[in-house]
Amino acid sequence: MYIIPLIYQIASMNNHIFISRLQHSFQSIITKYNILRTAHYLDTNAIINDEKLSRFSIINLPDEEHEQNETVKKILNQSDLFDLSVGHVINCHFLRQDQTNHSITQNNDDLLAKNDLILFSIHHTCFDGASTSILIRDLFLAYQSNDSLPVDDNSLQYIDYSIHEHIMDMILSQGFWQLQLKGYNLTHQLPLPIDRQQSSTDQRSGLASTTQITFDDDTSASLVNCTSSYHLTLFQLGLSIFYVFLFKLTHGEGDLCITAINANRYRSELTNMIGMFVSTLPYRMQLNSHWSFDEVSHYVQEKCLSILEHSHYPLQHILDDNRLNQSSVSFLETKFDFISVSKDVNHLCLNGTNLE
User: Fold this and answer.
1) Is residue 165's pLDDT more than 80?
2) Are residues 190 and 147 in the same domain?
3) Among candidates 239, 242, 241, 256, which has minimal Cα distance to 308?
4) Torsion sign across C-alpha atoms 311, 316, 317, 322
5) Considering the domain boundaries, does residue 351 fall inside one?
6) Which CATH number belongs to the domain containing residue 63 in this structure?
7) If you write DSSP's letter for every residue of 187-236 in order, what string do you get?
8) Angle 210-213-217 (CA atoms, 0-180°, nearest 5)?
9) Are residues 82 and 106 in the same domain?
10) What are phi and psi of 272, to 5 degrees?
11) Which residues form the domain of 296?
């Protein structure tokens, strides 16, 4: 189960949040975006709207921070957190500190105060990273006005896009992807210096390890300046650097294919819509060992722009066209993603109360 959690802690000392008002704001968002209240019945393959929409919970937090983290983990690991068969794909949890420590909330169960938490849990089938800023923006507007969000029955919704995607002519995009992967051995393993081999079965342990590298301010500024000098986006620059890195790791292998995450909001009408647009797509680059970094970056840029026009073609169709199943495709094992986090997403202010 793929969950997108959004958690905010109240930072204001003297201001507070009204639970009932926030519930109303949250419900207003669900009413506005029907993808957040759509049920899918597998037995009839029919899509319906269900008014039994969301779930709220108020939970008292333990005093110790590590126990509070465990409480959040338990919430997110609940087997019944979602139920797609009735359109239950989003939750709002209010996690309150010991009320004896809050003079404001001690005698009022409708208030959240400093250090209390608000946790949103959303199923990934209806929500992607770009949807977060839209949700936060509308939550702010609804809470500030203390009124329901305006709903335009004629406005495009994610389900409209989904239907359009299923009936649109994909022949041109199919040809594009066949040409992109022509001659590439899709089962070829990149000779990366790894100390563990992939399991021969489809069973996965669920375990992972991560390494984090933090750039200092000078390096970060240099990267931004580099995008300006080379006329690149940060995604294109990062992808170019990653390919040069892979080229070195594989001792000069020039035909490299990995996957990258694409926002897939290729039309202006999709930029303000909550939904699951993001796609995972193969990015094949055929590098020349004599190229300068300038040549590599512009080649990567051109490739990215060409892929953008065909990002709506589903990965599953690409695999089916090549008679492949997901477990046998090597390019899915190496992935590049660039995540841009807006300040508006990390910091929220509701009627003068700051949340971080």
Assistant:
1) yes
2) no
3) 239
4) positive
5) no
6) 3.30.559.10
7) TPPP----SSPPPSSS--------------HHHHHHHHHHHHHHT--HHH
8) 155
9) yes
10) -110, 25
11) 165-194+216-336
pLDDT in tens, 82-114: 988 888 999 999 999 876 665 555 667 899 999
Kind plus residue range of the DSSP H or E element containing 247: helix 234-249
Matching residue, tokens 């909001």: 265
Whether 140 contacts 349, CB under 8 Å? yes
Q: Which residues pair with 6 in a beta bridge?
A: 120
- What is each CA distance from 286 to 57, 243, 259, 261, in whole angstroms? 52, 10, 14, 19
Q: Are 1 and 25 in contact (CB under 8 A)?
A: no
CATH number of the domain at 308, please.
3.30.559.30
- Distances in Å between the Cα of 115 and the Cα atoms of 65, 93, 104, 119 are 11, 14, 13, 13
3-class SS at 132?
A: helix
Task: Count structural domains, the chain.
Answer: 2
Residue 55 belongs to some domain of the structure:
yes
The torsion region of residue 64 among left (phi > 0), alpha (psi -120 to 50) and beta comes to beta
In angstroms, rounded to a whole number, what is the distance separating the alpha carbons of residues 340 and 356? 17
The pLDDT of residue 54 is: 56
Token representation of residue 279: 């796609």
